Input
Amino acid sequence: MARQVAHEIKNPLTPMRMSAQLLLKAHRDGDARLGELIERTGRTVLDQADALARIAADFRRFAGPPERDQQSVLVDDLLADVASDFASIGNEGSSRVEIEAHSAGIRVMVDRMEMRRVFMNLVQNALEASGETGRVVVRSKIQDIWVRFEVQDQGSGVPEEVRAHLFEPYFTTRSSGTGLGLAICRRSVEGHGGRIGLLSSKPGVTVFYFDLPISEQR
Output
């Protein structure tokens, strides 16, 4: 884990160092573009600082024991959290994340913030897979004693050879990231008595799901 942390930290540190070096040189040389460079490199530093914070949070959540505050929560309220978190991801006020709620009156016993992080991870992955113009659908449905949540993207699909490894710690098909996101999701969902997996995948339609036991139904 220490080796993995060291490796991941290198990625954001490199552009941060280069940004600082560029600013110092521009200042010393009296570069007329200094104001423009401050804006550009400032954004870079902030973005990479956010990346470092995500890395630290991922390792902390994965390595430490979970502290849960489980309460009875309406499924529709969990979906409302998703809609709120991703409301600005789109053009002209429209969101690229669509919500399909089919579980009115259903409640689950969850730590609401922890479930919010599960959705955040799954939806962010789906948005990245779908590209800049693709849409993501988050839906709920009832299946026997479970409420099922699905996150559907429009990406190219998950290769058959990697599907068995998706929820393993440190496994990732991307050039950046800790490879802990789906592993953390799995631990969170299973810690709530649920189950998670890849439901189906083909070019244009990939669906991840997780099930939580119903605690109350009207």
User: Anything to note?
Assistant: DSSP finds five helices and eight strands in the chain. The chain has a mean pLDDT of 84. Residues 2-63 form one domain.
